[in-house]
Amino acid sequence: MASNSSEIDHGNYVPVPVTEGIHVPDGGSYRKVFLNELPEKGFVVGKDASLDITVVMLPGHSAELPLTVDLMGEGSEVRLAGICLCKDEDQVTIDITMNHRSGHCKSQQIFNTLAAGASKSAFFGKIVVAPDAQKTEAYQENHNIVLSDEASVNTKPRLEIYADDVKCSHGATVGKLNEDEQFYMRSRGIPEEEAKVLQMISFVAPILTHVGDEDLDAAVEAAIRELA
Amino acid sequence: MSDIILKISGLHAKVAEKEILKGIDLEIRRGEIHAVMGPNGAGKSTLSSVLTGKPDYEVTEGSIEFLGQDLLAMKPEERAWAGMFMSFQYPIEIPGVSITNFMKTAINSRLKAEGKEPMKAGDFLKLMKEKMALVQMKPEFAKREVNVGFSGGEKKRNEIFQMAMLDPTLAILDETDSGLDVDALKIVADGVNALHTPDKAAIVITHYQKLLEYVRPDSVHVLKAGKIVATGGNELIDRIERYGFEQF
User: Which pTM value belongs to this model?
Assistant: First the structure.
């Protein structure tokens, strides 16, 4: 079961108040991996700063994870990434709001979910580009692989772009593990379950490679084996 | 050790409710190379799919024995462990999985199934290097994602490289010559010939005689409308070249 919808809103910009969040000062950088949680407060990013957040949700954890990022000054970069591994009755909702309030900033989001069992996972990703936030680059990707008939996935990108000189894109996919790949691997002597594990690891690899932490790689691989 | 590697008896198979194979008998002994030729739609791909255990292909009658075991009761991976290998007509791309990781997992899975220890990293890399050289694959391919962005010729060479790594008793080459230029064809054929030893066998499934100029079969079968309609030696290849498949 899957649904996917998106809308581009060119209506009147109504600025919402800036989040009471963790401040990344001008020129500063903040990089962190969160396991099974995200900070309750959002992030307020100054100019020429960088924010690099990765969240990993392991199986057996349910959570609502709202995250707002306010880009307040020019020249900043934000990367938000996440892996959700859901099984059984897990319910995980990731709800991102990326506020480009200032121009010349770049934001990137990549969230990949593997949904097994009777889990319910959702990704809501909003990008708001203020009227004077020209030269904004904002990208968002959410990919989902559904591993069982009972699992459900909901993905909803939403772009609100009020500036005219911007580069923005979003991509959302929902699919299953590719059976031709599995047969090819099995024909070389890789057992079906191991073939699925390889596929799932490669699905989350772009996020893990960016972090570059062997302990995290091992934890994710072990969790993926629970889903296979 | 029995001389018979593969024994197909009265094989009928269907896919999507359509009967494609209508009674195939074929016996392959150690040291032999068999060519299976036939026009499009004859059932050549169905035969290779049934042999390798591709899902969705249903055997309705008959049996296949592989090295004395009931092949049809075995999973695709078990067939590989027992010594069967197919070079795919259309090799599959596996994004995110490197050739090294792919081959390491394949070889160690078989060793595990045999109750043996995984291969030592150094030995594995040495084997990779040696077998890549056999099909003239550049060393940097080891890190490439399996078949992703490969040209037609590179994909086929990668198939023969994998065959060399896995060292099968029975190699099935499914339209390995399709999409190959003469140079690539020669590299592939040289690889196949180098791997062929008196205790092994190969089935070369093809539509054209091109590959068979380099890999000489002991026996040639013509598959047409789901049946083997003629069996002979190399003279059959010339007959097909001259008169086509219409004559059968």
Answer: 0.91
